[in-house]
């Protein structure tokens, strides 16, 4: 049964000892719960908001998944609908999660904020805003993206201008009058900038060296090509360095049936592209002279991906149609979009900009888990989610075991592996 802790959490479970406590009721935590429920393991899933809270509260109104519906492979909740190649809206996916969780009676307790987890002796003690729980084993399924990151460089912004993290943006009508500066050109920043521009707002977009993926190429979606080529099964050891785990996702959209997001097209449509923000002091924005090199980096990323697909098709003999002219020329080269302005400074007041949206990623913090073995980035050290602390596990982290660990497509595999470990340790820890 899905429970709501607005009732009486203290009376119901305060003194109860669980075999397993799962923190986080998103797709990762619920996937673990699915396997534990099948084995009738005594457990509870806690969430600081509602089930699927991030999909409900941390996305803009028009948000759609950037991965096709066929990639929804939740255990016992695999997508079987009539539109496998479509892209579900964020709100619909939250409903999908709730229906799936109800199907196996996930023991979810909502509105429980976990303040601290500490291991004393053989048990874990979970301190929450609703009381204390005790458990033999704990799974942290809060994902990598926990709190919006606001870079120090932009904290000098005038208080007369609204500074909004991308996770708090909902739609153009909720913003103050005037233009908008969007900082960050990952998937969120690009999609928000495009929506604001289409609504008639003047938009400045500060871009970095995030790549671009063609939505479709040679007859298939780019996510399908990544799956077929094994790119989603890459392990962290295959990266150039551990910092690459936190690199922004390439330009891509699932809105309106799924589309390639092109900075070149943005410029054609009237969005002013600028380089990275060096600093903001009141109304004055200082800008790096790297806009052109960032555009070139996005182009190279797309070109490299297309070449990789071509090589895969040639080496495997897989049938695929030849690339169309639109696929090859859909992102025009720099010389076809006009001169990129070398803007090094903007006066927000003069440009009538009333809002700055920071699409600059998220911070994570696991200091509330004691003990938690962390690396130099403050990131949990695990082997496929299993830590060196008996009974402590992590789920849903970006690049936890593979590239797909942090996305919907990868949680079932990780959850199956972790659940087997957890169930095997019942009575032993």
What is the 3D form?
globular
**Head-to-tail CA distance between termini:** 28 Å
Q: Would you tell me the overall average pLDDT?
A: 92
Helix content: 10-25%
**Beta strand %:** 15-25%
Main structural class: alpha/beta
Rg for CA atoms: 23 Å
Low-confidence stretches: 1-15
Q: What number of structural domains do the residues give?
A: 2
Short summary of the structure?
By secondary structure, the protein is an alpha/beta fold.
Care to describe what's here?
- There is one protein chain.
- The strands form six sheets. Strands 1, 2, 3, 6, 7, 8, 9, 22 and 23 form a nine-stranded mixed beta sheet that branches.
- The radius of gyration is 23 Å and the shape is globular.
- Strand 7 (114-120) and strand 8 form a beta hairpin.
- The protein has helices at residues 9-13, 27-38, 53-57, 90-103, 187-198, 222-228, 263-268, 291-316, 325-329, 411-425, and strands spanning 3-4, 17-23, 43-46, 73-74, 77-78, 108-110, 114-120, 123-128, 131-140, 147-148, 162-165, 179-183, 203-206, 216-217, 220-221, 272-274, 277-281, 284-287, 345-347, 353-358, 362-363, 369-370, 392-394.
- It folds into two domains: 3-146 and 364-425, FAD/NAD(P)-binding domain; 149-358, no CATH class.
- It is built from ten helices and 23 strands.
- The model is unreliable at 1-15 (pLDDT under 50).
- It is an alpha/beta fold and 429 residues long.
List the SSEs and their pairings:
Layout: E1 3-4, H1 9-13, E2 17-23, H2 27-38, E3 43-46, H3 53-57, E4 73-74, E5 77-78, H4 90-103, E6 108-110, E7 114-120, E8 123-128, E9 131-140, E10 147-148, E11 162-165, E12 179-183, H5 187-198, E13 203-206, E14 216-217, E15 220-221, H6 222-228, H7 263-268, E16 272-274, E17 277-281, E18 284-287, H8 291-316, H9 325-329, E19 345-347, E20 353-358, E21 362-363, E22 369-370, E23 392-394, H10 411-425
Parallel strand pairs: 1-6, 2-3, 2-9, 3-6, 7-22, 9-23, 11-20, 12-13, 12-20, 13-16
Antiparallel strand pairs: 4-5, 7-8, 8-9, 10-21, 14-15, 17-18, 18-19
């Amino acid at each position: 049964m899905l429970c709501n802790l607005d009732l009486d959490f203290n009376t119901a479970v305060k003194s109860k000892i669980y075999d397993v406590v799962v923190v986080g009721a998103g797709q990762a935590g619920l996937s673990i719960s699915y396997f534990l429920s099948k084995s009738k393991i005594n457990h509870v899933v806690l969430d600081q908001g509602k089930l699927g809270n991030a999909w409900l509260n941390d996305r803009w109104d028009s948000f759609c998944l950037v991965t096709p519906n066929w990639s929804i492979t939740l255990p016992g909740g695999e997508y079987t609908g009539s539109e496998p190649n479509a892209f579900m809206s964020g709100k619909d996916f939250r409903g999908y999660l709730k229906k799936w969780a109800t199907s196996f009676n996930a023991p979810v307790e909502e509105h429980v904020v976990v303040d601290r987890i500490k291991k004393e002796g053989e048990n874990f003690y979970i301190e929450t805003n609703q009381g204390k729980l005790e458990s033999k084993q704990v799974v942290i399924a809060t994902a990598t993206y926990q709190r919006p990151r606001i870079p120090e460089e932009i904290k000098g912004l005038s208080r007369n201008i609204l500074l909004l993290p991308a996770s708090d943006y909902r739609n153009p009508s909720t913003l103050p009058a005037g233009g908008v500066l969007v900082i960050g050109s990952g998937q969120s920043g690009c999609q928000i900038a495009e929506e604001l521009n289409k609504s008639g707002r003047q938009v400045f977009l500060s871009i970095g060296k995030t790549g671009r993926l063609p939505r479709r190429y040679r007859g298939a979606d780019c996510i399908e090509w990544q799956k077929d080529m094994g790119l989603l099964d890459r392990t962290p050891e295959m990266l150039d360095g551990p910092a690459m785990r936190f690199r922004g996702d390439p330009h891509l959209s699932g809105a309106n049936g799924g589309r390639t997001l092109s900075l070149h097209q943005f410029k054609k449509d009237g969005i002013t592209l600028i380089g990275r923000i060096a600093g903001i002091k009141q109304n004055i924005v200082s800008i790096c002279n790297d806009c052109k090199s960032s555009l070139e980096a996005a182009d190279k990323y797309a070109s490299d991906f297309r070449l990789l697909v071509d090589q895969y098709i040639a080496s495997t003999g897989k049938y695929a149609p030849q690339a169309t002219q639109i696929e090859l020329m859909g992102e025009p080269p720099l010389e076809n979009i006009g001169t990129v302005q070398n803007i090094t400074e903007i006066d927000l007041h003069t440009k009538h900009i009333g809002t700055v949206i920071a699409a600059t990623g998220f911070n994570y913090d696991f200091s509330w888990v004691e003990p938690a073995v962390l690396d130099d980035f403050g990131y949990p050290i695990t082997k496929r989610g299993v830590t060196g602390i008996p009974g402590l596990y992590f789920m849903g982290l970006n690049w936890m075991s593979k590239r797909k660990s942090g996305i919907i497509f990868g949680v079932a595999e990780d959850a199956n592996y972790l659940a087997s470990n957890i169930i095997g340790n019942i009575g032993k820890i």
